[in-house]
């Protein structure tokens, strides 16, 4: 996996990819249309942030490259790569419980706060992508 040099793109499977953790200064792409929604991405070494229709979706500190990102009402899944371990915050349904897996390993059940945010720490190594899956529990 590599950084997303165009900052955001649509993949053949209908998912999106975004982020470039190799950039020394912030770069952004605004008003990227995908399936009727407008996306905005800001990315650099320090942070990667994605918004959909002006609303928070994803943020990582430090910056990451995310591929095959897809979200539904039941959760989300994506591959993430970075230069070092990252703290990832995503927006989901508020006051709900989600099962989080990283590279197929159960990271546990996590509850979102009143704002719907869920925070996951992912151990990353340059050149190696980690698969993150977040699924809502009934």
Sum up the structure in keywords.
globular; seven-stranded antiparallel β-sheet; 138 residues; Chondroitinase Ac, Chain A, domain 3; mainly beta; six-stranded antiparallel β-sheet
Alpha-carbon Rg, integer: 14 Å
Run of helices and strands: EEEEEEEEEEEEE
- Helix/strand-derived category reads mainly beta
Number of domains: 1
Number of helices: 0
Description:
The protein is mainly beta and 138 residues long. It has one domain: Chondroitinase Ac, Chain A, domain 3. 0% of the residues lie in helices and 58% in strands. The protein has no helices and 13 strands. The strands form two sheets. A seven-stranded antiparallel β-sheet has the order 1-2-7-8-13-10-11, with no helix packed on it. It has a six-stranded antiparallel β-sheet with strand order 3-4-5-6-9-12, with no helix packed on it. A hairpin with a 2-residue loop joins strand 10 (97-102) and strand 11 (105-111). The model has no long low-confidence stretch (mean pLDDT 95).
């Amino acid at each position: 996996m590599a950084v997303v040099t165009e900052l955001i793109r649509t993949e053949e499977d209908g998912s999106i990819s975004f982020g470039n953790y190799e950039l020394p200064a912030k770069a952004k792409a605004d008003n990227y249309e995908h399936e009727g929604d407008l996306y905005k991405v800001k990315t650099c070494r320090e942070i990667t942030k994605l918004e959909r229709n002006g609303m928070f979706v994803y943020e990582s500190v430090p910056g990451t490259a995310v591929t095959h990102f897809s979200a539904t009402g039941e959760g989300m899944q994506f591959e993430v790569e970075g230069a070092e371990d990252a703290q990832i915050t995503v927006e989901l349904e508020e006051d709900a419980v989600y099962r989080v897996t990283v590279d197929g390993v159960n990271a546990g059940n996590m509850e979102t706060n009143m704002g719907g945010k869920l925070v996951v720490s992912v151990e990353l190594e340059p050149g190696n992508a980690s698969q993150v899956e977040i699924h809502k529990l009934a």
